[in-house]
Amino acid sequence: MTGFRLERRKGRGSGDSALNPLLGIHHVTAIAGDPGGNVDFYARVLGLRLVKKTINFDDPGTYHLYYGDEVGHPGTIMTFFPWPDGARGRRGVGQVTTTSFAVPPASLGYWSERLKAHRVPVESAAAFGEDALAFEDPDGLKLELTGVSAATERPGRSGGPVPEEHAVRAFSHVTLVEQGFDATAKLLVDVMGFRQTAESGNRFRFVLGAGGAATRVEVRCTPDAPPGRIAVGTVHHVAWRVAGPTEQRDWRERLVGRGLDVTPVLDRSYFRSIYYREPGGVLFEIATDPPGFTVDESPDRLGTALQLPPWLEPYRARIEAALPPLPPLPPLPPAPARV
Ligand code: ZN
Prior knowledge:
alpha+beta; 2,3-Dihydroxybiphenyl 1,2-Dioxygenase, domain 1; eight-stranded mixed β-sheet; 16 strands; binds zinc ion
């Protein structure tokens, strides 16, 4: 029987999700209000590193800010489009409603105190055997810090405003709020290679590969909840990782073959992207690991200067004049000692 299964896999070539798996969460993109408040909260309070300061390529009068670990490894990247005069959105069906970051379980006490010291109201939360702290960013975006045992295997950011041992390691998971269940679960399991590992009431957990931080998604079924409205304080999309352009092309073919409406490959300077909507309405992206954030800045200078794509460089003076100033960043970490 094993031989038969192997043969079937071979027949499907590298397009098989078992041979070319999604590697986890690549990034989460949300909409912020005031960019200054956004930098202050994510870079100073949460201690993430602002790894790229650029603009929304489709709206060059506004920033696109990227935060992550020391170099913005995939799985650690939270990005924002700040709309200073934008209306507040509404969390609801068809959205990523909660973005959860992974910290060592023993660090939750430190974080509870730290958030309170910065006047951030915090509530205790727990799901699937893990403790967490739930809170909102200055624009009402719902976040969690989840105690994930495997998080201790990743290094914490050194030299940031949060001690290395307590630093955010990566995403833990994202939570999708859905009206139904079957169509989204089918896409996750049958097409995208997730496994359902747990359920509790209306909450279902799915995992990629060996599991751990940045490989998990929770689906929450709330048939009576109102639809979400994407604007300030809500998540715009979640991106999943692939190793490179070849793998991305395979994924595109597979998704199109399943009847999904997928965009062409788009060059986002720091990764390449395709987008599609899952059946419950959440916008998904598949993004490549390369080239990463050091493509236009050295590791020790990441996030310090406004970066523009080549086609917008001629307009730099006009673009810089239109952007609001950002608050000073926490001190830069020391240059990496390793060669
Ligand atoms: Zn994206």
